[in-house]
Amino acid sequence: MTTEGALARLIRSSADRAAAAGAEVCDLCAAPVADEHAHLYDTGQAEVRCVCGPCSVLFADAKAAEGHHRLVPRRRVRLPHVDTAVLGVPVGLVFFVPRTDGTVTAEGPSPAGAMRWEVDASAWKELTGTCPQLAGMEPDVEALLVNTVHGLDHHWIVPIDDCYRMVALVRREWRGLSGGGRVWPAVEEFFEGLTERS
User: Fold this and answer.
1) What is the top-level taxon of the source organism (predicted)?
2) pTM over 0.90
């Protein structure tokens, strides 16, 4: 019996037990994860992955894995009104993500998932001049999340996994052409549930 074979069997066994129990597992080692657990952002696939505590430690340094996997921070900051008109995005529910390469993307939820387009980098720089907290966002893993639908005025710096949770919520609750009666109350409840944390 080789060590590699024993380790592979242990990982498979752990994954099988967790799957049988219906529990979430670490996407790296297949160990069960708690309800509140860390996430990694896979920059190549643009996906968020669940990780257990020990695996998250491996990515605490942003240079780990040559930046291909970034540990998603937990920080949430509620901002005063941020006038995002300069960014030229005509939707009221959207998140803006500064990227490591200097670009900025805007993403809005839809019944088919997130719609994504690039924002003018100079417009983003102009906006950060009016709201300095935006300049301190971690590229790829933090976003400016905005909801001005139905007269609301929510502006947050959030981890990227919060944005993907919101996209999944819209996709799950959307009905018909206009969203139906469930999606907007669910979005409002999502924003009401956000709490500041450092």
Assistant:
1) Bacteria
2) no
